[in-house]
Amino acid sequence: MSARQPAAAKDGSTGGDRKAADRPIDAPARKAAGPRERARRRWTGAGIVQAPGQLRSLVRRSEGGLVALATLVGCVAGVAVSAMNWATQSLRELLFLLPPGMRLSAADAVSPVLLLVGPCLGGALLGLVIVAAGYIRGPRKRPAIDPIEANALHGGRMSLRDSLYLALQNVVSNGSGASVGLEAGYTQLASGLASRLGIAFEVRRSDLRTLVGCGAAGAIAAGFGAPLAGAFYAFELIIGTYSIATLTPVVVAALCGNLIAQQLIATQPLVDFGDVQAITTSHVTSMEILPSLALGLVCAGLGILIMRGVTLVERLVQASGVPRVAAPALGGLCVGALALVATPQVLSGGHGALHMHFAAESQGHGIAALAGLFAAKAMASAISIGSGFRGGLFFASLFLGAIAGKLFAAGAPLLVPALAGFGLTPLAYAVIGMSALAVAVIGGPLTMTFLTLEITGSLPITGLVLAAVIASSLTVRKTFGYSFATWRFHLRGESIRSPHDIGWIRSLTVGRLMRRDTRVVAADTPLATFMRAHPLGSPSRVIAVDGQGRYAGIVNVPEAHAAAREADAAAQPVLADLLLHTDAFLTPGLNAKDAAAAFDRTESEALAVVDGPETRKVLGLLTESHTLKRYSEELDRQRRAMAGEID
Hints:
Helix 4 (63-96) packs antiparallel against helix 8, helix 10 packs across helix 11 and helix 12 packs across helix 19.
């Protein structure tokens, strides 16, 4: 049984590695704090409310209790998604004078002045939000933790304060017309609420990770009206694996999130064909897999270009020297100019535009028009995210994928005439391209496959989508190696490539594993003196230090006695001649995996632990056998937790 989760901070932060500045200050410091600090604590200093002890015990010892908690998480996710949808639509109607319920990307009667100025005003408002947050939250060096990073490194612990802040930024960004989706805000807020709820019930690490996945599942299911897609989004992208132990809570959360959202705000389905036969002209056979695979490969390349484009814009903005609070306004002006010159379809997430492109009356676009729309939308998304608007590329990648599929349907037969003989319509290619490009950018092949199944109800088309998303996912993984989220972690210097729990490895450090009661001897000690102080049968390894107390090497006691016996009486060896691993040592911040690699590299059974390569002050000793034993124990515990075998 794992230990209980550590108590959360009084300031409301639930991040795994809080800085000292985030911890509560003591009474004298509280009295000395200025009015700005007191105002900041007034808004952010609320403590965590713990659930009653009997309820905590019920959730910890009962699978039914965890499912009940997941049900609550799903309902909360549905409410959060509905609130964000209402807020963003209200902001769009206010800024662009839209009729009630009209989607911005589908509006064709918006004033050109509003198209140009609206995103810029939103960027200015976002800058004010950043300034206000900086005043309330204080200087923050660590970025907010998203659900993937929380589950990978922090055992599911997220800051609700940061999640609310990011959700607000996402609402302002999407509501003002920036080309970002709300899905990042959905999952951030719902998972943050789920994490806070799990901490209140003091659930185990594995259960807290599952609850974070439940929050994301409920949010995606509510946002798209697709419970299966929401559940597998959690399995593939937030939890990192599917297991029997996580199946029930995640699926229940997804169903509840979808149900609550449908009751609160009536939304259109993601795609409404009216007649499934509109996507095929003949019976779908296995031969249709060939163009589907080709489209998957094309979407993989386009997805990589889009992710690279976002990074390029970010670097250009940083190199320009534009202040962080002013960059969104400048980016919004550029996005508004694109909407004015090209089409309003580049604005916001693109829900309305996607419905337009799947409608029967909007078919028959030329190659040039489709290519121009794809380029404009991709540029708008890159500029929006690169300039500081908050949001994700989930829905933008769906819209871009649909356009790419229609482009493929129009252009591929011109290059390969044999492709014209297949029974797929441009709508079918749009569905396949929508899923394949989303997989290239976001990841989650099964998520996109089930999303297609839920919006089309066609098993044959779903089979073709599965082939395309596998081709796209494999190509991106082998040539690029990252999804959009993990690519941004990489740019930040983080090595996360999935939500698999590696936080336990990082917490299993050399500093925790080492022995501190080690014996130290001066390197210039006469050998005879050393042997008298360390006879055979005493600890077999002694650390030697130089005259300044710096690490000098390790003395093997049996080898020292053997060397003394074998040497001539007139030529006794000195202790310095017997030192081992003089330049090989560990530092306390290394994790167990890195320590095991160091043992292999130096071919040693034990290494000294020093505070750093410069000072080399001895802190302790770590053996290879103890490291591997503890690493194996933790690995086995994680395996059993994943399989639901831990009570």
